[in-house]
């Protein structure tokens, strides 16, 4: 399914249709959204460099990470550096999003990082109209006019929403989608930074919504975002849930699994082994709180010294609450009437004995019956 | 003439330094660390620890310290007991202390004053880095320590947006100016929905979280709290490693140890 999304971005849009738009959303419970974004970005950049995509260039709006991060990322993913310089333009909304650096004196004796030709500073992220025209100008700058198209990626819409309203951001994305020169567009949003209506609004602008969700659902106990042990165990894999909107209006829901390895994010079909059922709810501590199977077997075999009658008779277990019928008789159980007959006989013999009858393991420790009720003061 | 005594051998890194990947000197392998504490357990000692380490003779680090919670004399007194003279370090241009007690951005004219206030604060940090990065110190790395984030929120009249904008600019320094950020934040003051979103924002931009909290078993004389260090593979990314140990704050430093290892 990730492959089909990559193909959709590669193939771009049909004449007369809006460009395909992908929303990638995640949360702190499963913070793999950035990796998924990087995956699709590297794939598309590679296809643009190979000339196999409809888009002939890519404009990346970098709000959350520096342009140098993305240039290093594409180099690590094997995209030729010269082709990155030629076909990728980065609109740097990370370094100076509000124009502060223009309003303070420049540094003198400090070596500033070198600027690259394919990186353009953008200094007013609050002006959505200016952002839109900057993206379009950058794209037209290297694909020219005419019918050549380019792709757009926005690395974090959540940052944009901090500076401007939801209608403005939705309008920006919609304007980009409907532009004749846009082949495809995709963006990342952290759903837990916003109200649910934000995700819903962006879903209406999208043709595909890909949600990264935790494999193990949060229980009430884990719902605190500070359950680091739970996050550590579950953060390297996730559910990749995709909602596809077909042109005919049909909405398809699909799911895959994704996990992180040394290279990056990998997608796999959902298997029965990786069930989504919560397993143990026991807290993760440095010692075992449960018995292993072998330990349970061994415990069952232990004969407690004070219940070993020494006369070859079966161990007696008291379970007075069960009403026994003949076919339910447990050979280990002694009926109360038989028990009293035994004690009477032994009492008449004049020798004192202690008979220990172990309670049944079936009896719950927190039963309603109050053991103190047996006391007769 | 007696030869000068040999320098003391470098001490072994403690558990916190090991967890943070801080060897004997050298810059940190991460860029932005948040220190979280609560009313019952103050995390200020972690800032003192970072301050001493950054200014130690073993490395060539420098510090820009934004003092919003305490005056310079407080930190000077504390660090002297730990064997570090902040006044000397300040005179040697290794420490720039920006005194921000009672920081307030006047809001009489409207919202722009908060932005201008934070912009001026960012400018002061840049000037400090400029002063530190003289020809003598140009090759070193700079740690920006903020004590603490809640005072920035107070100065911003509770505006989460302005604080996050300021942090965005501080973050840009980590990539442009080879700086490292250590910020103290009080986790338990955030109860409203907007404030909880603030904590989520911080989680997304940090690559290290150091959490100081009380023992789950209650107060103890010899153990002052437990520390959890969360190492992520990237800002807001996967948890790569989790470290957990306990600590005891002493007059001249902090002792870190694993549970049950002191007795």
From TrEMBL, chain A:
Residues 335-351 have a biased composition (Polar residues). Its main location: cytoplasm. Pathway: tRNA modification; 5-methoxycarbonylmethyl-2-thiouridine-tRNA biosynthesis. Residues 360-377 have a biased composition (Acidic residues). Residues 325-377 are annotated as: Disordered. Keywords: Cytoplasm, Nucleus, tRNA processing. The keyword Cytoplasm applies. One of its GO terms (biological process) is tRNA wobble uridine modification. It is found in: Cytoplasm; Nucleus. One of its GO terms (cellular component) is cytosol. InterPro entries: Elp5. Pfam families: Elong_Iki1. GO terms for molecular function: tRNA binding. The keyword Ribosomal protein does not apply. PANTHER family: ELONGATOR COMPLEX PROTEIN 5. Belongs to the ELP5 family. This is Elongator complex protein 5. It comes from Musa troglodytarum (fe'i banana).
Automatic annotation (TrEMBL), chain B:
InterPro entries: ELP6, P-loop_NTPase. This is Elongator complex protein 6. It comes from the Eukaryota. The lineage of its organism: Eukaryota, Viridiplantae, Streptophyta, Embryophyta, Tracheophyta. Belongs to the ELP6 family. GO terms for biological process: tRNA wobble uridine modification. One of its GO terms (cellular component) is elongator holoenzyme complex. Pfam families: ELP6 (PF09807). Pathway: tRNA modification; 5-methoxycarbonylmethyl-2-thiouridine-tRNA biosynthesis.
């Amino acid at each position: 399914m990730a492959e089909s999304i990559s193909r959709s971005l590669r193939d771009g849009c049909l004449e007369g249709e809006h460009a395909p738009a992908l929303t990638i959303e995640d949360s702190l419970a499963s913070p793999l959204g950035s990796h998924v974004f990087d995956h699709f970005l590297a794939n598309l950049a590679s296809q643009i460099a190979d000339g196999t995509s409809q888009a002939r260039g890519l404009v990346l709006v970098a709000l959350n990470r520096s342009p140098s991060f993305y240039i290093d990322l594409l180099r690590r993913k094997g995209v030729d550096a010269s082709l990155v310089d030629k076909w990728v333009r980065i609109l740097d909304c990370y370094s100076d999003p509000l124009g502060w650096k223009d309003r303070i004196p420049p540094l003198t004796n400090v070596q500033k990082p070198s600027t690259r030709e394919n990186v353009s500073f953008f200094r007013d992220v609050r002006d959505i109209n200016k952002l839109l025209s900057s993206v379009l100008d950058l794209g037209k700058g290297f694909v020219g006019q005419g019918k050549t198209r380019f792709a757009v990626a926005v690395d974090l819409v959540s940052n944009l929403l901090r500076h401007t309203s939801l209608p403005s951001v939705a309008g920006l994305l919609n304007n980009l989608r409907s532009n004749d020169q846009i082949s495809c567009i995709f963006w990342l949003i952290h759903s837990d930074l916003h109200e649910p209506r934000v995700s819903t609004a962006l879903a209406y602008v999208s043709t595909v919504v890909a949600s990264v969700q935790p494999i193990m659902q949060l229980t009430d106990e884990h719902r605190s975002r500070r359950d680091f042990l739970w996050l550590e165990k579950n953060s390297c894999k996730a559910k990749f849930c995709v909602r596809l909107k077909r042109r005919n209006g049909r909405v398809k829901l699909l799911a895959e699994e994704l996990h992180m390895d040394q290279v990056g994010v990998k997608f796999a079909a959902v298997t029965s082994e990786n069930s989504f059922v919560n397993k143990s709810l026991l807290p993760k501590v440095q010692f075992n709180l449960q018995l292993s199977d072998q330990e349970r077997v061994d415990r069952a075999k232990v004969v407690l010294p004070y219940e070993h009658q020494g006369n070859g008779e079966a161990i007696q277990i008291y379970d007075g609450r069960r009403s026994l019928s003949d076919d339910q008789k447990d050979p280990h159980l002694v009926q109360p009437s038989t028990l009293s007959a035994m004690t009477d006989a032994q009492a008449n013999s004049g020798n004192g004995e202690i008979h220990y009858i172990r309670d049944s393991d079936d009896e719950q420790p927190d039963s309603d019956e109050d053991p103190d009720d047996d006391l007769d003061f | 003439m007696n030869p000068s005594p040999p320098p003391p051998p470098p001490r072994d890194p403690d558990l916190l330094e090991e967890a943070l990947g801080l060897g004997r000197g050298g810059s940190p392998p991460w860029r932005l660390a948040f220190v979280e504490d609560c009313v019952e357990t103050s995390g200020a000692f972690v800032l003192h620890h970072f301050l001493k380490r950054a200014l130690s003779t073993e490395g060539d680090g420098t510090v820009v310290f934004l003092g919003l919670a305490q005056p310079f004399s407080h930190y000077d007194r504390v660090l002297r007991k730990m064997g570090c003279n902040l006044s000397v370090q300040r005179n040697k241009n290794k420490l720039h202390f920006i005194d921000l007690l009672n920081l307030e951005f006047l809001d009489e004219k409207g919202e722009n004053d908060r932005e201008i206030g934070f912009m001026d604060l960012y400018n002061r940090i840049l000037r400090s880095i400029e002063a530190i990065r003289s020809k003598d110190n140009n090759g070193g790395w700079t740690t920006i320590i903020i004590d603490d984030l809640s005072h920035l929120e107070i100065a911003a009249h509770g505006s989460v947006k302005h604080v996050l904008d300021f942090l965005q600019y501080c973050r840009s320094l980590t990539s442009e100016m080879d700086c490292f950020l250590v910020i103290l934040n009080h986790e338990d003051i955030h109860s409203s929905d907007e404030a909880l979103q603030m904590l989520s924002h911080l989680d997304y931009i940090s690559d290290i979280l150091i959490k100081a909290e009380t023992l789950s078993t209650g107060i103890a004389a010899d153990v002052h709290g437990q520390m959890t260090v969360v190492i992520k593979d990237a800002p807001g990314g996967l948890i790569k490693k989790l470290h957990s140990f306990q600590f005891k704050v002493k007059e001249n430093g902090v002792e870190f140890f694993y549970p049950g290892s002191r007795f």
